[in-house]
Amino acid sequence: MKYKVIIVVGARPNFMKAAPVFVEFKKYEKIDPLLIHTGQHYDNNLSKVFFDDLKLAEPHFYLGVGSGTHSIQTAKVMIEFEKILLEQNPHLVMVVGDVNSTLACALAAVKYRCANQQYYPLIAHIEAGLRSYDWQMPEEINRRLTDSLSDFLFTTEPGAEDNLIKEGIDTEKIFYVGNVMIDSLLKSKKKAEESEILTQLKLKKKNYAVLTIHRPTNVDDREDFKKLLNALKKVSKSIQIIFPIHPRTKKMLPKYHMNTDFLKIIPPLGYLDFIKLLIHAKFVMTDSGGIQEETTVLNVPCLTLRKNTERPVTVTMGTNIIVGKDQMKIIEETDKILQGKGKKGQIPKFWDGRTAQRICKIVYDFLKTNITVG
Ligand code: UD1
Question: Is the CB of 230 under 6 A from ligand 1?
Fold first, then answer.
């Protein structure tokens, strides 16, 4: 008998975090890793292309949950995931990041454990302890609740442990292992260089900026969105802005009747194309979490279009600057970058490509010591 470990993915930012862990677990003779895709993201360019680019195996189970309100989506994942728990009775459920699928599967797993009066499944959360302290963000709710349910809290940066301790989490459950998303980035960098995306978009290296915006706080309010577009229009007078557009943002644009001709809008990109675009960008403007970390490792200046970040190490050590929707600040920081005075950074400890190794070893050593399989 082997230890059964379920790894959950649901949305775009999960795939590059789960891939290295799944591959690493495969190397353990006594571990049987199962990949579950909830189907929170289902479009090919938000899901399948990542499986192809990361060479991630087909999921063992696809729950087909799709879009919906937060409650509907979370509840549907719970209902479907419980069926998998009943069928598989895993020893451990591993969730990553902060999307609705992350919380839904952690919650379903602890409830299943209680109902069956079992010691397992244990819950492991990768990317634990990040906090924006902004309760308007659905991800903040997902992070807090998932951490409170987890038995293993794998953290990416030093401040995360302090956040968890403040919330009363036992230090024995917290493991500073580094950043598993950076495992994927470092592994894929060379392959990404082979992408033809710069040629396809007729771009010259360091002669364009990349933009991503999809957070409800930026795109769901007409006035906020307008403010941001005004600032971006000014930036576009100095440098071309490439904007791979998320479906949420694409849906909102026609409703606002705003001119966006100053942006080069393209469909969402696959993993390798996007990494190539990041590597050679002059700078990046984003409201994504993961991109703040990727730009730090790639040493590309990043302007974060939010009023806070749950990933402060990208600001204290990395290339990230929080600019919010402040037009003056956006222009000021853009000018500095264009004059060659962009922020340089250092790479945080353990963002070294070996985080999945550390995580799997911790999990395996624990399972071996505490749960007997035949
Ligand atoms: C989700 C995550 C967010 C993450 C983002 C990355 C939550 C609460 N949010 O936000 O943390 O940064 O993914 O992309 O989990 N849609 C499609 N095709 C798809 C999926 C969605 O067109 O494959 C459209 C649907 O209209 C849907 C909307 O995008 O209603 C939003 O999708 P959803 O998964 O609810 O949230 P995201 O904004 O993608």
Answer: no
